[in-house]
Design a protein that fits this description.
It contains 10 helices and 14 strands. The chain has 305 residues and is α/β, with parallel strands linked by helices. It folds into 2 domains: 221 residues, Rossmann fold (3-Layer(aba) Sandwich); 69 residues, 2-Layer Sandwich (Alpha-Beta Plaits), CATH 3.30.70. It has a 6-stranded mixed sheet with strand order 6-7-8-3-9-10, sandwiched between helices. Strand 1 and strand 2 form a beta hairpin. The longest helix has 16 residues. The chain is elongated, with a radius of gyration of 24 Å. Bound molecules: adenosine-5'-triphosphate (ATP) and magnesium ion. The site of magnesium ion has 4 residues, from helix 1.
């Protein structure tokens, strides 16, 4: 079941620049959806439109069935947004900023909930410190606390871990996972492929204002997951022997390596034939290994097509 439905949405800014072409996207209830794309692809614009901060030029968005323009308040109340740019009230404390944000959504005070959120984000010790005295990573967590203060069933994280150290990044992944466990739908953008690989149920890739791919992560890794067989040659080869031309081999490492790319789910991998032909051509190797391509390779090949 989809909790967010984006239909035929495009965005041309006043400058005349078209940041989004035609976007159709459904977010399923309870999933972690990772939106990947290079700088300027349109990620923040798309999030801004869904959250009602940016007007779409065409199209419609519904959030939990509420049209996000005609029924803005109901749609927006379902969303917690952690924006890409940090802007916290420097002189406020994490506690007051979170409690205030809850009030903005017209929710009754609930100190127990604010306490839980601050504890989950390891901010409890700092609850009464002025935000200006916190580190960058802590400020980022304050933004998350603020976004969660009104108990939204949907959370947008626009590059939650940009500029965050490895340890803290892992702890934020933990926080996000725990939120998913209690049923929160999470949409995050990231430049860290590892983050999508680690966290996402589904991955969307956006490039130049167009969604070029939406796929289950596991399926994506299977579908596009190719393997490479690397043969470390005993003797350097200046050129590929013509007898091997049919195998789509690549000569690398100054002629000391042969790389063969194949599909693990293909009916035949071609490895047996390759090895036979190598033997017949007198090409000897002293080692071989295989590697599976990562989401990163997939991403790079999609974006550079
Ligand atoms: N207010 C604006 N007026 C004109 N153009 C804009 C405006 N906001 C964004 N853009 C342009 O729209 C395009 C998409 O920007 P957007 O911020 O959505 O990209 P992004 O995918 O979030 O990039 P990043 O990974 O760098 O955050 C960019 O070319 C940007 O310059
Ligand atoms: Mg952005």
């Amino acid at each position: 079941m989809s909790i967010i439905s984006v239909k035929n949405v495009s965005k041309t800014y006043a400058s005349g620049f078209t940041a989004l072409k035609t976007i159709d996207l459904d977010i399923r209830k309870g999933e972690i959806f990772a939106l990947l794309g290079p700088n300027g692809a349109g990620k923040t614009t798309l999030i801004g439109i869904i959250c009602g901060l940016v007007n779409a030029t065409t199209g419609t968005v519904t959030v939990g069935g509420h049209d996000n323009v005609k029924d803005y308040r109901a749609a927006r109340a379902m969303i917690g947004l952690v924006p890409q740019e940090l802007h916290t009230d420097a002189w406020e404390s994490p506690w007051s900023t979170a409690a205030f944000s809850r009030g903005l959504f017209g929710k009754a005070k609930n100190p127990a909930h604010i306490e839980k959120v601050l504890k989950d984000l390891s901010l409890w010790d700092k609850r009464n410190s002025q935000i200006i005295t916190l580190s960058g990573g802590m400020k980022r967590r304050v933004m998350i606390a603020k976004a969660l203060a009104h108990e939204p069933p949907i959370l947008f994280l626009d590059e939650p871990t940009a500029g965050v150290d490895v340890e803290l990044r892992k702890s934020m992944w933990e926080v996000v996972r725990r939120l998913r466990e209690v049923g929160v739908t999470i949409i995050l953008t990231t430049h860290y492929i590892e983050e999508a690989e680690e966290m996402a149920d589904r991955v969307g890739v956006i490039n130049k204002g167009e969604i070029v791919l939406v796929e289950e992560k596991a399926k994506l890794m299977r579908k596009l997951g190719r393997k490479q067989l690397k043969l470390h040659l005993q003797d350097r080869l200046a050129v590929l022997p013509p007898a091997l031309a049919a195998h789509h081999l690549e000569l690398a490492a100054d002629g000391k390596e042969l790389i063969y790319t194949y599909d693990t789910r293909g009916e035949r991998t071609g490895i047996t034939g390759l090895l036979n032909d190598l033997g017949a051509a007198g090409v000897r190797f002293n080692d071989l290994n295989t590697t599976q391509s990562s989401l990163e390779d997939i991403f790079v090949s999609l974006v550079h097509q």
